[in-house]
Specification:
The protein has helices spanning 2-17, 82-94, 101-113, 148-152, 154-157, 174-186, 198-210, 250-261, 280-295, 318-324, 456-460; strands at 24-29, 36-37, 40-41, 43-49, 52-60, 73-75, 120-122, 127-129, 142-143, 191-195, 217-222, 236-240, 245-246, 268-272, 309-314, 329-330, 355-359, 375-377, 382-384, 390-391, 396-397, 406-408, 413-415, 420-422, 427-429. The chain is of the alpha+beta class and 461 residues long. The chain binds S-adenosyl-L-homocysteine and zinc ion (4 copies).
């Protein structure tokens, strides 16, 4: 799997650059009259081929791209009978968590009153247990003597939901989490809207409870309801970032609005680390609505800029993100994860992470750690990876992946070091790419009888 992600991204990248289209699904968005599944309003999709819509439009679950997790499906023009509508409502009602957030807050209050020797956590049900419930879980795998420290790091207690297509919980390595928090503090922010970043949230919450002069506050928005066992309604909202849906309805929306409004809204930053499965346009539309909530907050003195944001996402989504947020810049910082063997830092001999920070803050303000090899490019006015060389022709530091890129005069831009210019495709690509004229001939000129390394057209130039 590891190599797959990088290779697949390279391939997608190459394809996009060569202007080919493989077809797929296009998201049409959030329709006002969309039907709902247990994850809120469904999204409208259509099949595409060569960039054109093909076939009937349909609604599908916004949160789960794996049909096993939520199989909601409805044609846009389908007539749904009253009986089916009633059954669907019943299904949505019964597929909600067994406890409400309010109940979980009460349970937590009782849980912390227990002596440590009576604090148990069921690993199978992913639930804190109160003594009367022990019996029910007697043949489940339990954790005993849950400490206050454990309660303060629920992301360590809960197992990460690694289901690739739905939750894809990849937790920040401590180093990256600490870096983000230090950066947020150095930039002068005091409130963090943590959207799908439970580990950043818990680092902030835990410091706030231990250090008296620690002023930063965080509100977590996440679809993982297990977190409602550890945080109050002012600290956690059950939220779906693909359709901007607050499961608690108006109350959740109000909590979020209040958090953005409190005191000085200039001190708020949103940090998000969504699952990488795609649907960038759905995410962008939700984030724009969160930004609008922030902007709405200060009516007397309307804030002209955008809510500051860190959107953590792989570098190969750069053009997609910039399509929706032209004011964003991609930073070179490589975000590391604990439970992801692939996305670890290269410095220590491990594989390089393709995950970056996209932000609407001025790039030069994002100071990257010199001790990890980042340096300041005075021409670009931003911190870059040590391997990222300033290209005189492009007049910018062009590497996206931390390796030194090379300039291609035919493509008129810098490309990955492993790429070569293919004269058949008329662009740079991996030597192993599926060439348009997939002849057995030379990669460079396409003629039979020799390989790239001995191509006569190369020795001429
Ligand atoms: N690196 C982050 C975790 C990122 S993993 C950290 O360490 O804090 C992605 C997060 O997004 C998970 O917490 C997951 O529960 C959440 N998530 C996944 N799908 C979501 C959705 N549709 N809406 C809101 N949150 C979602
Ligand atoms: Zn669903
Ligand atoms: Zn530069
Ligand atoms: Zn260049
Ligand atoms: Zn080229």
């Amino acid at each position: 799997e590891g190599v797959g992600v990088m290779a697949a991204s390279d391939a997608a990248h190459a394809e996009a650059l060569c202007g080919r289209d493989t077809g797929g699904l296009a998201l049409l968005g959030l329709a006002p009259s969309a039907p709902s599944c247990p994850h809120g309003p469904a999204l409208l999709f259509v099949k595409t081929s060569q960039g054109k819509e093909e076939g009937r439009r349909f609604y599908a679950c916004s949160a789960c791209r794996d049909r096993k997790d939520c199989n909601f499906f409805q044609w846009e023009d389908e007539k749904v009978s009253e009986t089916r509508l009633a059954a669907r409502e019943e299904y949505n009602r019964t597929h909600q968590p067994s406890h409400t957030h309010g109940q979980n807050v009460e349970r937590y209050k009782n849980f912390v009153l227990l002596p440590v020797s009576k604090r148990r956590f069921c690993q199978e049900c992913q639930q804190l247990l109160l003594p009367p419930e022990w019996e029910e879980h007697s043949d489940h795998q339990l954790l005993y003597d849950i400490s206050t420290a454990q309660l303060q790091s629920p992301s360590q207690l809960l197992y990460p939901l690694e289901n690739k297509k739905t939750n894809a919980q990849y937790l920040f390595a401590d180093r990256s989490c600490q870096f983000l928090l230090d950066l947020i503090i150095d930039l002068g922010f005091s409130r963090v809207l943590s959207v799908g970043t439970p580990r950043l949230h818990e680092m902030i919450q835990s410091k706030a409870s231990k250090e008296e002069d620690f002023r930063v506050r965080s509100l977590l928005l996440d679809i993982d309801f297990r977190y409602s066992q550890f945080y109050t309604e002012d600290e956690f909202c059950h939220y779906n970032m693909f359709n901007h849906y607050f499961f608690a309805g108006e109350a959740g929306l109000e909590t979020c609005r209040k958090f953005l409004r409190q005191g000085n809204s200039e001190k708020v930053i949103m940090v998000t680390d969504p699952p990488f499965g795609g649907l960038v346009e759905a995410l962008a539309s939700s984030f724009k609505r969160l930004m609008a909530m922030w902007k709405d907050t200060d009516k007397e003195d309307p804030i002209s800029q955008e809510m500051p944001m860190f959107w953590i996402f792989p570098y190969f989504f750069e053009s997609r993100i910039l399509e929706f947020f032209p004011s964003f810049t991609m930073m070179d910082y490589q975000v590391d994860y604990d439970n992801h063997t692939l996305y670890k830092h290269g410095k220590t001999g491990r594989r390089q992470s393709p995950v970056r920070i996209f932000t609407n803050l001025t790039p030069r303000m994002i100071v990257l750690p010199v001790e990890e090899g980042y340096r300041f490019c005075s021409i670009c006015q931003r911190y870059v990876s040590s391997g990222n060389q300033h290209c005189e022709i492009c007049n910018s530091c062009t590497s996206k992946d931390g390796r030194r890129w090379k300039h291609c005069f035919l493509c008129k831009k810098c490309v990955k070091p492993s790429w070569f210019h293919c004269n058949n495709c008329n662009c740079c690509a991996l030597p192993t790419h599926a060439c348009e004229k997939a002849a057995a001939g030379c990669f460079v000129c396409g003629q039979a009888g020799h390989k790239r390394s001995t191509c006569p057209s190369l020795s001429r130039s």
